[in-house]
Amino acid sequence: QVQLVESGGDLVQPGGSLTLSCAGSKDIFSTYAVSWFRQAPERQRSLLAIIEPDGKTYISDSVKGRFTISKDAAGDSVSLQMNNLNPSDTNVYYCYVPVPPSGAWGQGTQVTVSS
Question: Which portions of the chain are predicted below pLDDT 50?
Answer without folding.
Answer: none
